[in-house]
Fold each of these.
Amino acid sequence: MTLVLPTYRDVAAAAGRLAGVAHETPVLTCESVNAATGATVFFKAENFQRTGSFKFRGAYNALAQLTPAQRQQGVITYSSGNHAQALAAAGRRLGVAVTVVMPQDAPAVKRAATEAYGAEVIPYDRATVRREVLGETLAAGRGLTLIPPYDHPWVIAGQGTAGRELCQQVADLDFVLVCCGGGGLLSGIALAVRALQPRCQVIGVEPAVADDATRSFYSGVLQQVENPDTLADGARSTCLGDYTFPLICQQVDGMVTVSETAILDAVMFLWTRLKVVVEPTGVLGAAALLTGQVAAAGRRVGVILSGGNADLPALARRLNGG
Amino acid sequence: MTLVLPTYRDVAAAAGRLAGVAHETPVLTCESVNAATGATVFFKAENFQRTGSFKFRGAYNALAQLTPAQRQQGVITYSSGNHAQALAAAGRRLGVAVTVVMPQDAPAVKRAATEAYGAEVIPYDRATVRREVLGETLAAGRGLTLIPPYDHPWVIAGQGTAGRELCQQVADLDFVLVCCGGGGLLSGIALAVRALQPRCQVIGVEPAVADDATRSFYSGVLQQVENPDTLADGARSTCLGDYTFPLICQQVDGMVTVSETAILDAVMFLWTRLKVVVEPTGVLGAAALLTGQVAAAGRRVGVILSGGNADLPALARRLNGG
């Protein structure tokens, strides 16, 4: 099967669907960040997006393209995180029933948030069941359309609208730093930046302990990582996907990694200096900047803050050395 | 001595001095807050102001009005909190030397932040020294101009620009909820709102355990509170001042109080829903709204988030029941 990769045209079309629905999130600047880095830094605050992360963009863009029959039947996904909430919220707006396959040991607060948007949650045992298989089985059995969390052209194009907005809000960027889990956000943003600010480099950022995409990018061969022990729960995915791997190889300029300490430090830095709550996955780009992983001095740097759904009690325990 | 109270003309003049210097802070909205309260709520995010709180407005407005000789000599204040940092930052911008009298047991991070802006910090022993007396003595001895943290017409007028901005950003407000410590912010905002949206009610909010201004407002007689044990460290001031007491009596429509539990809950709510870091003093207005202290349903409500300089490790311990 030959995959047709999404292009910037798909991102632009997604922006049309999202206009007036998704928030145009603000770009934040901070003098102390500029002073500390020698750069001019623009934070794209997707933590202020609906449902608390960029995921709403891709989820809504996908549901908006279903046929009437598909809408009627409903959709399914597998996610214990931001995609679940985003798809549930998009489904509620569009009148599409949403089913979410979620590990039975997912935090109660995440299940509750997803159910609060009206989705049905089906728990499963992570030890014995692969979520992709369960999702596909249920989709087939119930006639539901599967909307995976990242490896889907509609999802990727939707996420790319965050990069399109940033390029429209800030001219002449030299770098954009983007966190990378499954690669949907990174792929989509790369498509947008290549089209709108071709001189700007797009750099993906991963936790050092979950560096499968970095290794895949530099080796050209898809690499995996199993259950990495990272604070950045959105970057624990095993590997890039059928769409995101080739897109990242073609469209992205580089990949870097950051330590767990750098992630926690960046969470705290954004908390104390920018006064914004960003979850550990969402600070990956900021962590790369603050630890000097890119040569930012004198440059105009965009940094995506991808989400704000932090597990605050857990972070608080970390802060106190727990 | 007859005091000449500031008026809205002073607030408007302050806005001219602050144009292009202070941030015009954003107004945040949140669907889940509107759903929970039945109101349309507009959060004025002064936690994003320079130095992390509204205090920069009053501090800069005061320093900008000094004579050349006074600027040359320098200024002094007493504060362990946001006013110290704000005055230090304003002094650095205007080339005015700033001295701050600070308790010797003030958190090291606050002293460091103040010194990082170039101010000289003079520690004192809270058990044996009254800060007002020490400040005035040093001012006289060194020829410094005293810029107190709230009870000064220039400071009050500067703080009022936050209310002026809110009235320009959001039309037809029914209520504005404002935290109250020494009353500088509340007085200034009341002046602005009375002038620009006279139909809008201005409500001050205090911690229940530090309710001196509420008792003063309703009794018409200045009341005090000694070392109240409240999370809202900006509301621990003993009493309203010579300027702020009459202004609040004349310009404010009501005062309400909130419990310590409501304060902590509001910090967490803003953290988790708005993804913004607001310090305990800064959430007083939000706490009043969220606990139903004002009849907000169906109304357009402005809420001042006054600052974001939260002591995160301490809050983290509270979150974990410490």
Amino acid sequence: MTRKNRPNKGLTYAQAGVDIDAGDRTVDRITAHLRRTYGPRVLGRDGAFAGCFRLDYNERLFKRNYKDPVLIACTDGVGTKVLLAVQMGIHDTIGQDCVAMNVNDMIVQGAEPLFFLDYVGVHRVIPEQMEQIVKGVADGCQLAGCALIGGETAEMPDVYKPGDYDLAGFAVGVCELKRVIDGQRVEPGDIIIGLTSSGIHSNGYTLVRAILKHAKLNLDKVYPDLEDTRPLGRVLLEPTRIYARQVVSVLRSYKRKRPIGGMAHITGGGLPGNVNRALHSSVDAKIHKKAWQIPPLFKFLQRQGKVDEQEMFRVFNMGVGYTLIVRPHFTEAIMEKLRKAGEQPFVLGRITRGTGRVVLS
Amino acid sequence: MTRKNRPNKGLTYAQAGVDIDAGDRTVDRITAHLRRTYGPRVLGRDGAFAGCFRLDYNERLFKRNYKDPVLIACTDGVGTKVLLAVQMGIHDTIGQDCVAMNVNDMIVQGAEPLFFLDYVGVHRVIPEQMEQIVKGVADGCQLAGCALIGGETAEMPDVYKPGDYDLAGFAVGVCELKRVIDGQRVEPGDIIIGLTSSGIHSNGYTLVRAILKHAKLNLDKVYPDLEDTRPLGRVLLEPTRIYARQVVSVLRSYKRKRPIGGMAHITGGGLPGNVNRALHSSVDAKIHKKAWQIPPLFKFLQRQGKVDEQEMFRVFNMGVGYTLIVRPHFTEAIMEKLRKAGEQPFVLGRITRGTGRVVLS
């Protein structure tokens, strides 16, 4: 049934603002992106109501790998980083941010990512734009080693402004019950390892945009203070790093020993508001601000917005995107494994007796 | 650190429009709602980065119940039904809609719901409003028999208009591989059973709102044509029915036999756009429009909007929220089980040889 030139004068769904055909065209465009994330565990079927994912490649492997599997799931969005993507007209990286925000949260508990689903709320479906968004999600899923088994695009012209959209994601992983990491095993003397962030990641963009406005900054301009050849807007849109493969490979390399007591993904709340989530109530995390170089972007934003340093550390990751709390004896071995996986890990500080707080000094 | 009366004049996150404390107050309010959905399979921990859910109560039970488990996952929102909730100032039922949209999709594949997560994008976090939204989500989870193990509230004042929000959800269930329902076993002669909807459910609200505007309808008015004592707005906000417990109980009652070949959740696209998703390419579904009484609400909206009947059937569920395609020999037994579970099932039509189409007559 064509939806154009309809004979009667009654209301149709298309006139009311929802274009089902544009939705169908979008599905055609994004299917290839979904498929490149599929492994043999995905049970694919066109038109299915839900995505299906086998917990292991086959029954025999599954029984060998899991005695008491725990599913680990989280949901997160990319915050107002989408507004920057819209302003710059660059839509193919925000999907990686969305995957990163979820997958980095999930691996904190010791999980291996299995699959991902995305939700896009949008003013109007523009198939080309939607393809770019989903391409980024699929890129992120490939980086994280998980399958993109579903998603939803909701066209809501009266909720979202023209050109605007919101992007949220959902990730599921699995971990054997005995190996779930919950911070209870963190001990005084443990070492805190930090992994570098690629920039702002996906938290604090409402403050970033306030600073842009306050200091009348130009997204298209190259600022020498940034020590980057790209214009400010591009630097700010740099996608969030995904730590999944690196962290999972370290976890897998210790089959019996459990040298990692806790981990944290540094999101809204910064180091003080996230490393504490990896502690129990009788230890503190002592972090030395001089342990790493704060990237020029954060110093630039702090200066331009005259933002208090404490506020900077509470809102932004300040260059540290992920932390691992490890037994001192294993520190060098774990750092070497991380280096081999492409990271540049550094010692941020150590665990002391305390009350579950993060002490920055 | 208090966020008020800060001494310096630099920008803070709160001034930029994000109130972290309101977020914290919201977490306090919603925790009780999450907890009432928990069963023994939820591994709860405050401040965790992700929700953790054991696949069975214990290792022994897990091995007895699953040989080759398949995870079944989906994501969906509630569309512009949120705008109606906002307009009416009623926020404690839209969460059930959100759970329903996801869980009803998932059970179509034969899954038992395990857990749910919600995502709320909002102009500004109002703890009382957020509690109402999450209360509805928790109600829906209890109806569906799944745990609400996580969620995200994203405050985005520059994306959402004051008072507005968007609500999406994500559900995961499990099904033994051999029992996944994919429509491949549907045969000519099979019977199509329909289950009643509670109203519009959560699709087509953009058209509903266009009709409201076109016909200058009043949400606060009781229209005799609706055959309902409640005002129009309340009738339109009636939450989506959740078919999970009923359908799962029927599926569980057939341990060896597999009398159900396909199922469909009737969402956007109506009967013709959803029952086809339960078919393979060599059968048709013949549905008789006279097999059930179209509820007064649909006739009222059709008349008020002068909407073509075909368009009505393509956009709305027309009173049928869920369908099951069953072997003829089992029809009466399955209908009796559904009746015992509180449903009023009816025969909608039957399967014939064909090309994967739905034929309404």
